[in-house]
Specification:
19% of the residues lie in helices and 32% in strands. The protein is of the alpha+beta class.
């Protein structure tokens, strides 16, 4: 009687361990963000939790903070915020971002900055992403849009340092007035 109870406990322990491994490895993943590109919302040296399956069931939305494979070096991952969806017209003008003719009032950006006025048409299956810290222009302004398959997942929580713990805001009030073109 005791032997079957012990065997059942070992099997349950192995099953729980495998389930946790699958969840941690394939669904959620922790990333160490060493850049200041998403300040002030996400500080440098923060650890974030990324949902790698979030876009299996829905499409990325404006305002989502995402981890993407860095276009100049796809072996490196970076974080940015989705500003433009497929079909959108995005324009940078001095301190403003204009999407489909609507000026964005980006309350999460401390210092609006665009070194040059430029326009982009976001192609199908692609997204226009920008850093929240706009003085760092290593984003779609310099390397163009990112293809859907370059998106690793949606950043959902800053979990380290503990004092900075918070759910990452998608700022729906900023993007709510925009209509999708496709």
């Amino acid at each position: 009687m005791r032997r079957s109870h012990f065997t059942r406990e070992i099997i349950e322990l192995i099953a729980i361990t495998l389930l946790l491994f699958v969840v941690i490895r394939f669904i959620i993943h922790g990333y160490h963000m060493q850049s200041t590109g998403m300040q002030p919302e996400i500080g440098s040296n923060a650890y974030i939790m990324v949902n790698r399956t979030s876009y299996m069931f829905g499409k990325p939305q404006r305002g989502d903070a995402v981890v993407v494979h860095y276009p100049p070096d796809p072996n490196t991952d970076v974080m940015a915020r989705i500003i433009g969806l497929p079909g959108d017209d995005v324009k940078t003008a001095g301190s403003h971002i204009i999407v489909n003719g609507v000026f964005l009032n980006e309350t999460y950006v401390q210092k609006p900055f665009n070194p040059e006025s430029k326009e982009w048409k976001v192609p199908a299956n692609s997204y226009f992403v920008l850093n929240d810290n706009r003085t760092i222009t290593d984003d779609s302004r310099s390397w163009g849009t990112v293809n859907n398959d370059m998106i690793v997942g949606k950043a959902v929580v800053v979990f380290w340092p503990v004092s900075a713990w918070h759910v990452i805001n998608s700022h729906p009030s900023v993007f709510g007035q925009l209509k999708n073109k496709q």
